[in-house]
Amino acid sequence: MTLTEARAELKARQARMAAYEHAMGLIYYDGATGAPKGTADNRAQSLAVLSEESYKLATGDETVELLEYLDANKDELDESERRQVYLLLKDVRSMRKIPMDEFVAYQRLLAEADAVWHEAKEKSDFPLFEPLLKQIFDTNIRFAGYIEPSKKPYDYWLGEYEDGLTMETCDKFFAALRERLVPLIERAVAAPPVDESVINGCFPTAKQEELSVWLMKTMGLDLDHVGLATTEHPFTTSLGSHFDERITTHYHEEDFSMSMFSVIHEGGHALYDTGSADELAYTVLDGGVSMGVHESQSRFYENILGRSRAFCALAFPKLVELFPQLGKYTAEDFYRAVNRVRPSLIRTEADEVTYCLHVMIRYELERRVMAGELDVHDLPGEWNRLYKEYLGVDVPDDRNGVLQDSHWSGGSIGYFPSYALGSAYGAQFLAKMRETVDVDACLSRGDFAPINEWNRENIWKYGSLYAPDKLLERVLGAPFDPKYYLDYLEAKVRDVYGV
Amino acid sequence: MTLTEARAELKARQARMAAYEHAMGLIYYDGATGAPKGTADNRAQSLAVLSEESYKLATGDETVELLEYLDANKDELDESERRQVYLLLKDVRSMRKIPMDEFVAYQRLLAEADAVWHEAKEKSDFPLFEPLLKQIFDTNIRFAGYIEPSKKPYDYWLGEYEDGLTMETCDKFFAALRERLVPLIERAVAAPPVDESVINGCFPTAKQEELSVWLMKTMGLDLDHVGLATTEHPFTTSLGSHFDERITTHYHEEDFSMSMFSVIHEGGHALYDTGSADELAYTVLDGGVSMGVHESQSRFYENILGRSRAFCALAFPKLVELFPQLGKYTAEDFYRAVNRVRPSLIRTEADEVTYCLHVMIRYELERRVMAGELDVHDLPGEWNRLYKEYLGVDVPDDRNGVLQDSHWSGGSIGYFPSYALGSAYGAQFLAKMRETVDVDACLSRGDFAPINEWNRENIWKYGSLYAPDKLLERVLGAPFDPKYYLDYLEAKVRDVYGV
């Protein structure tokens, strides 16, 4: 095989992998959106087959030989190809350490767990989900041992979602957050409460759907390539390439702001993915580089932009147009309501300030289960205890407690810290962006183009070309520092509560 | 390999094939329902890969060896396995005669043609679609030559949709229809016209969606396994197995009956597919045996049941509930309106009596193009000429003429006769069913169970176990005869028009 042939084959193999990703991603998406509810077993059957085929393609001898040949000749590859080979080899070396039957069994387990978790959540019945969750934790521990036996299992998984992340880093990061957030929350809670009545009432789904489309257009999403569907737990996915992106939301007729900010959040993910340079399509470099950076974008659009005074003022007339009962309120009322600080039960509904404590609880629990210090059986009790300790709230049932998130049933253990980390990246990006872009002026006139352009040029277009730490260094020209985020949150609380 | 192993492998291979069918079917379904409109190229990319992989799986040496081994030992297989081996071998022998690059190129052509046809139809621009349509006809002719060089190409393709069907049979069948239908239509058209105002007006989509769900439940579809979505050109598809079936419809706010009968039609397909015995799932025997038998079920539910006086009387109160403006009409008005005979432009909107003439025109055109007697370039002119000759209508543009159907852009040449044939099968099934089931009484009380049970026991549960001719013989105990259908249509016209 010549180098030219090998480079062509590298491209062709990734295109084949992308087709499997498309198929599996769409089956998952379909299950979460339009599929009839009795069809989960049927999907599990097909996903098992496709993941096996895709595993064979990714880890087969031919692929490994190709990658090793290219790796040996990496000086003759361009930067993008070198990174493709690096990432694929890293992946294949990991995957080949997992016996195929265990890999396939795990896919089946996740498919089953997804269905059972839904049912368990609906019935608030943790014991129903417990045996599957235990298998998921056990499998993740076992897989980490196969792949990086020298690492602690949880360190391995943290690094999977954010390259280089470890418990040591997380501990420091969360300690820094805790130090300033806990007193901040205490001050906000002690202050006179914000009137939230503007976001509560009756908001017909059809009108909220119109709002979603307006938001997607306003934030600069290309609706020819980004679709919207409804689901139970909103998520975003690329199908095959960044040319077909799907965001999802969930409408609550009693509070339009829940879907509103979930659309902006998922829209931020979609902007990041669809902003990849077109030449990255159908390669492993297509789309965002890590969960942390992904969340930095989603939470940047949702909170830093979406909950800013300027954006609230821009959106408010549209809200009044759709929901005439809001006519008696002002944009300032709306701004204050969506920035209220109130310790609560549900992470995805948490305000910006208490949000990180929700993440911290999950981090602490995952860490202990992964270390064998906490039994899955005892998760609900510990969950409830920590919610009382950190947030001062009583968890009434497991539906509103340990069963609320879909991550564990999907095998995503080690993902949660990315949310907090991403939020903190975003605040530091904002500081940098402000050096050249008048963000508030853009938001006031509803012109996301300069903001999106900055993100595209600095972050999006690179897809996964640079590892997260390298990307951050390029963008920020300084080390990551959570102080930007804490400064930002303190300023917000001061602005809303005067404390 | 022992026979036991080979039998297990037969099952496993079909399950793998089913997963590819699931993936490709879902990508197609997604493209026709929820996908953003700029994503067709991305789907084509993935479909090309998946169809290549699926082709390799179906036609690879291992598969052929397995099938030939099982075929050589067929006396030791059960009836279902024997039929699986027969169908798979027939398929693989056909497919292996098509060079893989041509097969893959054809899949890409169809994906492109689908997008171009949509655009051409929208713009009423046949020349835009013409080069692709010519390639499709040429490829179908070439493939038929590869597979069955001794047959005329069109005979090969007719047989693909209805095993054993030939131009000779079609000619006789259509001649029989023409002989009695032409004077029948003349009589109906000469009679005083039926008042159709009951079905015309303004019927909100949301209410029509409620009607769809009511219809699906009433006709006995299991909504846990049958989904409904909206699309441009309604169709039905199974995803992976009969455990996940999707029907689609298109709402016209000015005429609720269009979607109403399309839902019942697609629902008939779905009943047939989902009625396969569960043990047929993930084998090639799962789902309906041929397009003709499939259409016999869809058109049986749509017309023979759906447009019966008894069903119209059952549905009418529900219609009034959803559309209060219908309160001034009677069920009889509705029955007459949906049974009016009026030569028209669009096949899918045609009444039951003129419908077969639409099919006949397509049959005649396909036959001539496939024989090289008519150039694709001349299709619009010939289309318009035949509509004038057979139906007496002037075709104003290609959107309402030669570009109306999706079949050709999907490569389905030879499919159309199944519609007419299926309609005729259905009338003969009805005669047989009436020997043991009081069909009108069932419909009057909204109880589809005895009707569905008859179909399940006689037709559905066998999936593709019996070839269509054998199935018909088993069900009818007599040769197929179009006279039942013609008797049925004459009785309907007599009832509605008194002529």
Tell me about this structure.
The structure is a homodimer of 499-residue chains. By secondary structure, the first copy, chain A, is mainly α. Chain A has two domains: 150 residues, no CATH class; 331 residues, Orthogonal Bundle (Neurolysin, domain 3), CATH 1.10.1370.30. Helices cover 63% and strands 4% of the residues of chain A. The first copy, chain A, has 20 helices and three strands. Chain A has a three-stranded mixed β-sheet. In chain A, strand 2 and strand 3 form a beta hairpin. In chain A, helix 3 crosses helix 4, helix 5 packs antiparallel against helix 6 and helix 8 packs antiparallel against helix 14. The relative contact order of chain A is 0.12.
